[in-house]
Amino acid sequence: MNNRERFQEKRDFVILWLLEFRYSTKKILAQALGQEVSGMTRFFQRLEQLGVIAKTKSPFVYGHLVYLGRAGKDYAGLLSEKAGSYPVTKGSVPSALNVHGLSVQLAVLRRSSLTVPFDFKSEWHLELETGSRPDALVTTGTTQTALEIELAQKTQPRIFLAFLTHVQNMRGGHYDRVEYIFSNRALCASYDKLFLEPSWPMYTRSKKGYVTRVMEAGEAISAKADDPLIRERFTFTHEELYL
Fold first, then answer.
1. Domains, the chain, ranges and CATH?
2. Residue 4: alpha-carbon gap to chain centroid
3. Which phi and psi angles does 35 have, rounded to 5°?
4. What's the rounded Cα separation, in Å, for the pair 122 and 73?
């Protein structure tokens, strides 16, 4: 493979990654390519000059975020049907959710083969009947694992609703396992403690987004949760995320 072909291969990888996650950082993109970012300076400069990528600042992230530029979107149309729904512009990138989005990318990076076609999908490209999507899906062999990245404590109703939604999605054949990934041990332990309750209070989400208890004949109901088929399909881990 000559230099031109290597450049095109790396360019296409970057485009496909940005199509999947909408934005990233040069450091994460370099890691995904198996390189140190310090050795990729000229490559990223060339992509910017060609209009393949553009960059912007977010108040929540150190350094720049990158997204597809005009030429990048044109190239993307030749590589994937996902290009038609790529919505990112400079004004839409800065967000308090950037840290979570970058943490998802790091978690996927550590679990993927990082080959094209990708063995993962981000939440932006998942369609589930429940309307609730995991942060990403990673396929290993024939096993699909849903990833949930948690950076902050949620309320118990939201946590139990998420557990039950995952069980429903797995019963529907959308994926096989769930891995919760936390930024610290204490947060991991708090979720694991709730997960190990013998029964989970049942919740539902209203059309307006409110989480409320499921009632039957005027009584709040719970679901049996100590079934081995449920226990063995959830994993709770903690690792360094984008903080």
1. 1-95 (1.10.10.10), 97-243 (3.40.1560)
2. 32
3. -125, 160
4. 18
Question: Cα–Cα distances in Å, from 121 out to 30, 31, 109, 130, 152?
Answer: 19, 18, 12, 17, 23
CA 81 to chain centre: 20
Q: What is the pLDDT of residues 128-172, one digit of tens each?
A: 765 678 999 999 999 999 999 999 999 999 999 999 999 999 999
Q: What is the DSSP letter of 154?
A: P
Query: 3-state DSSP: the chain helix, strand, coil percent, rounded to 5?
Result: 45, 20, 35
Contact call for residues 52 and 68 (beta carbons, < 8 A) = yes
pLDDT digits (tens, 9 = 90+) for 70-129: 999 999 999 998 888 888 888 788 788 999 999 999 999 999 999 999 999 999 888 876
10/165 Cα distance (integer angstroms):
37
Q: Phi-psi region for residue 51, left (φ > 0), alpha (ψ -120 to 50) or beta?
A: left
